[in-house]
Amino acid sequence: MKKVLTIAGSDCSGGAGIQADLKTMAAHKVYGMSVITALTAQNTTGVYGVLDAGGEFVGKQMDCVFTDIFPDAVKIGMVSNVETIEMIAEKLKEYKAENIVIDPVMVSTSGCALMSPDAMGALMETLLPLGDVITPNIPEAQKLWGSPIESTEDMVKAARYISKNLSGSVLIKGGHLTETSDDLLYHNGEITWFRGERINNDNTHGTGCTLSSAIACNLALGHDMKTSVANAKAYITGALKAGLNLGKGSGPLDHGFCLTTRLG
Question: Is 191 helix (H, G, I), strand (E, B) or coil?
Answer without folding.
Answer: strand
